[in-house]
Amino acid sequence: MDQVNALKGKGNKALQEEKFDDAIKFYTQAIELDGSNHVLYSNRSAAYAKAGKYSQALEDAEKTVSLKPDWAKGYSRKGSALAYLGRTEDAIEAYQNGLVLDPTNEQLKKGLEEVKAQRGSRAFPNPFSGPDIFIKLRNDSRTKDWLNDPEYLKLLQELQLNPKALGSKLQDPRVLTTLSVLLGLSDGLDEGMDVDPPKYEEKSPKKAEEPKPKPKEEENLTPEKRQAIEEKNLGNTAYKKKNFEEALKHYRKAIELDPTDITYLLNGAAVYFEQKEYKKCIEQCEKAIEIGRENRADFKLIAKAFTRIGNSHKKMNNWKQAKIFYEKSLSEHRTPEIKTLLSEVEKKIKEEEKKAYIDPVKAEEEKELGNQKFKDGDYAAAVKHYSEAILRNPDDPKYYSNRAACYTKLAAFDLGLKDCEKCVELDPKFIKGWIRKGKILQGMQQQGKALSAYQKALDLDPTNAEALEGYRSCSVAVSSNPEEVRKRAMADPEVQSILRDPAMRLILEQMQNDPKALQDHLKNPDIAAKLQKLLESGLVAIH
What we know:
There is one protein chain. This protein has helices at about 1-15, 20-35, 40-50, 55-65, 70-85, 90-100, 105-120, 135-140, 150-160, 165-170, 175-185, 215-220, 225-240, 245-255, 260-275, 280-295, 300-315, 320-330, 335-355, 360-375, 380-390, 395-410, 415-425, 430-445, 445-460, 465-480, 480-490, 495-500, 500-515, 515-520, 525-535. By secondary structure, it is mainly alpha-helical.
């Protein structure tokens, strides 16, 4: 049961950290040890649902209900899985069955309300469930590259199976862009067209041929402004056909006719962007901002100009300049899309700065300074130099090992352990890293784990005196602590396999009742090998 609880705890932690596949793995291992535990199936159902595997989530939910029919939470899991699968009526029934058992359960009440609301919205088609959505997404420049991202495909699957999840996903800018593509709307970012999306209005047969009244603003327009709008519309048509030179010609004519309208300048900049004429795009946007400020243009248009400048710098790998203009755009109008772009370039800037800072020669100089401070007993100063060495050359395991030694002297065992793990991750054959890890784990009174670390070192060099001494001292500590022996043994997959074997269980029972039976069983080489493993683990002793 201790091992089952440990695996369940690992699964719960992974689920909280949104590591759904890991959570499923841990719950599955726990179920293999205890297949009648309804809580484990319930938890794995939740993990499957989070991972978008709704059929598996439903299977586990049904198993939960069959194991514990009087447990309301099982019906909540079942209702949730059915709702995700679009089986609305079945989901309602599941929630109602749960409420019979626990009428005050808020989770069941909320689930029932949501699924009833989902039933009421059936008349509205789900834009993510059409048969040709992947064709649309692949043929659009805004979304085609995303289809190579497993996380994006997982997002699409969730929205296909559960349209009500759309509201919680709108903070992801990819969702809005995807929705625009599927609904046939124009893009508002990279393409930058200022064309209003078509409005679909039902018209009665009687009014179908009636001319639309012109907006009052258009009635007061000068002939030049009217002609400028016509030129813009012609430019938009050419732009959509990717006839960029033709589009530019019309936008330039619109600017000549109405030089006070920022829109025409922005549309021209969008053409330059598509032609990869990024410097021209920037110049056009700068002029648009100047004209816009003079004529009190909408702040959203000013923000769009700043964004387009940022996009141009981003295309030219001018990350810091892109950051400046995305920030200026956000100061005019805050949108999730621009915040995402800003985060992307900030991440790129950090990566570039980190690469630029790498200098193996200076790293060695810092290591030598750290070594001297360590000898002097100034461990805090040594940590500072080793940390600088790591920044200068983050792929050298020696620096992490040295810093771990300092942390050990400062009794900061958790930080030292973290450095040791990084050290052996970079170089699994670095014996000193394994030995140092063993010593730190000993200091943390984790003798079983320390023993494993020393064993790793001995696997690399069986004659290493430091590793041998550490292994011996840990073995003595472990053997004097039966609980530690049991925990370490139960963590061994081979031991687990032996103990799950029904034949071995029967043999162990026979040995306990009749010690003479041991001699007969040892004649079988396979059984003898398994018994030897249990003897070495400390779980079995022969007196």
